[in-house]
Design goal:
alpha/beta; seven-stranded mixed sheet; three-stranded antiparallel sheet; 12 helices; 17% strand; binds pyridoxal-5'-phosphate; alanine-glyoxylate transaminase activity; L-serine-pyruvate transaminase activity; aminotransferase
Amino acid sequence: MKTYKIPMVPGPTSVSHEVLEAGMVNFGSADLERDYVDLYVETGKMLGKIMQTEHTVVIQTGEGMLALWGALKSSLRAGDRVLVLSTGLFGYGMGEMAESLGCKVRIVEFGFDETLHDYALIEAAIRDFQPKMITMVQNETPSGTMNPVEEVGRLKEKYGVPLLYVDAVSGIGGSVVKADEWHVDFCLGGSQKCLSAPASMAFLSVSPRAWEIIGEVGYAGYDALLPYRTAVEQSYFPYTPYWQGTAQLHRACRLLLEEGLEKVIARHEKVAEYCRKRVQEMGLRLYPAAGAVPSPTVTAVYVPEGMTWADLDARLRDRGVVMGGNYGCLAGKVFRIGHMGTQANLNLVKEALDVLEETLHG
Ligand code: PLP
């Protein structure tokens, strides 16, 4: 198995020894022990600070997709109306997920290289479609773009839409997320992006309104949220919790909060700005269109003409650098430099970009 000296993939990000070590111990029998419940509660509180929410934070064993599915299945029934705001692969994906549950889906679509912008269009869609849920992605990892949740939250409130579902998987811990102030009912994350813990835990904030709806829907399944409503109070989890994974997530949150949320976000912004400047100086073209908000956690760049991604990727790997390829319609056309979590490090990014420059021009 190959390993790389300079990891620049936008998740899973490289895990520090300190975080790995937090899980390299044997614990007791998880849900039968108060210690686990305390660890779970404390981790949830720290995640709440990072997402700026006072709502319950649920932590599940799995990765981002688990929480994404769990929240949809737990709060929607066949026939429910879901308004999907899409600026990319994950945005569209949510529409497909809701459709597979039998929901009526309407998509307000923008270009993959754009940020949500036409609020009159979004407002008209809310008024006309009267959705039960609005979905959106705060940070479209494949496109390297950010979307403003605040504006959508305001519209959600204005029209009394019951649920706002926000995939913030690659933004939490690397960008400003104000789940409560933005009226988010489900703010969804995973351990392997900006928190730089192993790809093992999913988490989400759940608003009181969302809990009411979850209770009404009554979905039962491995990914169901309902059992988490009483898990802490009753010391009873729906399956054996992953003690080591929770401990690693706990350590990752603690490291982040010790550094300071604002400082961490400023570090991501500084590194992202440097990255964008350097790739443009090399003659490369950024993927986000003019006017789109570039992501502070991942930079998406067009594969240069006359070169295939497979070739560029192989040459970078030969020099110890691994960057991210892409998916769907962006596969082979756009590659990504993941500067999130441990990788939001100016020296590391500089090293990676020096190698990229050498590979292209050297
Ligand atoms: N949402 C976004 C925006 C992502 O970038 C990803 C992963 O790349 C996910 C959801 C899914 O997360 P995971 O792969 O950790 O399940």
